[in-house]
Structure formats: structure tokens, C-alpha cells
Amino acid sequence: MTAAVRSWLPFEPDDRPVVRDTMHQAIEDWSARWVATGRWQLAWPGRQARAVAAAPGHARRTKNGIDVVPSARHAGEIAAAALMLPGGWEFGGSNADALVAAFEDRVIGDLAETLERVVAGDVPAAADRDGLVTINITDAKSGSALIQLSFPRVLLIELARTGMAPPRRRSRLEPIGQAVAPERVAIAVTLGVARLQIGEFANLVEGDVLVLDRAVTEPVDLCVAGTRWLGGQLLDSSAAETGISIKIID
């Protein structure tokens, strides 16, 4: 496990060889300790919204919503189901359609941005209290709160790292010029700069290594959606104008 990853964790993970390089084990270790001191709270202000958590036996209804109590075994599954995965939620009540639309728009849309900020360490302290990141989902028209989700920061980091949450747009790494299939693009050695985003795509910064499958014809023009632009021809060498190291693998 890299020093950068260690710096994100609110505990010292087990360093036995069998688990020391496994982020999942680190998350499970933390989740097991966290059961006694915290929980995910999925709160619905008002009584119209209803939901069913996707982890039977690990959720209970409360007056205002559902409390999901994490366990070492189900921590990742609960987080993924609650955030994104199809079938993770069932909505009912008179405003069910509006809730589903808001959930899809604000969670699937804004969560990508939130994850990026979490991974980059840019989430304000108020949103990262006690190691939790709170995401408020509001009605686009009225501005009223619909759902509030609170998750351990390290679990959001893991979701971003493993690509369990889909990106807001088709990809954060958009090939231009020659066609490059997104699934053939991989990012390596990005943990050290804490700029991982979602899935196979990353916000490239100086020092990153971009690894392209040899089947991809180079040179390749790439642009990174958002604030950074990688122009020019990126070849099988260090690109001086960007600081990005390009490697072609067999």
C-alpha cells in the first residue's frame, strides 16, 4: 500500500503480507471497527419518500428514513448499492417519479464531481466531519432537500478507484483525432498524486504514467475533460510539454 493511500486512511491497516497491499482489506478493517461507533444515515426529510436498502439484514427503518449499519462483510456492497447500482433503491409515494429523476440526475451526475473532490482532498472540512462525506441531493426546482447520504471518505475513495460509480459524462479521458477505445486506456502510478477519478479514466497531472495497449496506433491525441487539456502528439516517451510519461505495453 502506498504512502499516499495510507495518508487517506483514518487507521493503521493490518500489515500482514497477505493483506498489506489490498485496499479492500483495509476498508474491511476500518468498517469492522466503525460498526460500533458510526453508521450510514440515509435520511429523507418528510414522509413522502420511501426506500428499501439493497442489503437485507443490514438496514432498519427509522422515522425519517433508513439507517444502514455497515459490517466488514457488506461495507462495499452497501455503499455501492446505495450510491449507484441498478436495483439498489425502490422509491414509492406520490412523488416517486420526481425522486427517481432527482436521484438519477443529482447522484449519477453530481456524485462524479463529488468523488473527484474527495479523492483529490478538496472536500471542505465541514463535509468531511469525523471521516464522513455528506452528499445532499436537492430538488432542482424548489431547492428543497430530498436525500442526504453520508459515507466514510475511504469508501468513496475506493469506489472511485475501482470504478463502481459511473462517470457523469462518457469519460473523463476523451480521445480525439484517432479512435482509441476507452477500455484500452489504463492509468498507472496515479495513486501517488491522489488524482484518481472514475473507472479507467483519470485526471492526468504531471508525474502520471499513461499506459496504452500496443494495439492502439500512436501517436494519439488526447484531451482531458474539465480543466486540463493535453494537446499535441503524445508519443512513447515523456512528453515535455505535459510532464506525462507515455508507455506502450505489449
Kindly describe this structure.
With 250 residues, this protein is an alpha+beta fold. It folds into 2 domains: 3-162, no CATH class; 173-249, no CATH class. The chain contains 5 helices and 11 strands. Strands 7-8-11-10 form a 4-stranded mixed β-sheet, with no helix packed on it. The protein is globular and about 60 Å long. The protein starts with a helix and ends with a strand. The model is unreliable at 1-112, 123-130 and 158-250 (pLDDT under 50). This is Flagellar motor switch protein FliN-like C-terminal domain-containing protein.
Give the SSE map.
Blueprint: H1 3-8, H2 23-34, E1 40-43, E2 59-61, E3 65-68, H3 75-83, H4 96-120, E4 132-138, E5 145-152, H5 153-162, E6 173-176, E7 185-188, E8 209-213, E9 221-224, E10 238-239, E11 244-249
Parallel strand pairs: 8-11
Antiparallel strand pairs: 1-3, 2-3, 4-5, 6-9, 7-8, 10-11
In short, what is this structure?
This protein has helices at residues 3-8, 23-34, 75-83, 96-120, 153-162; strands spanning 40-43, 59-61, 65-68, 132-138, 145-152, 173-176, 185-188, 209-213, 221-224, 238-239, 244-249. It is α+β, with helices and mostly antiparallel strands and 250 residues long.
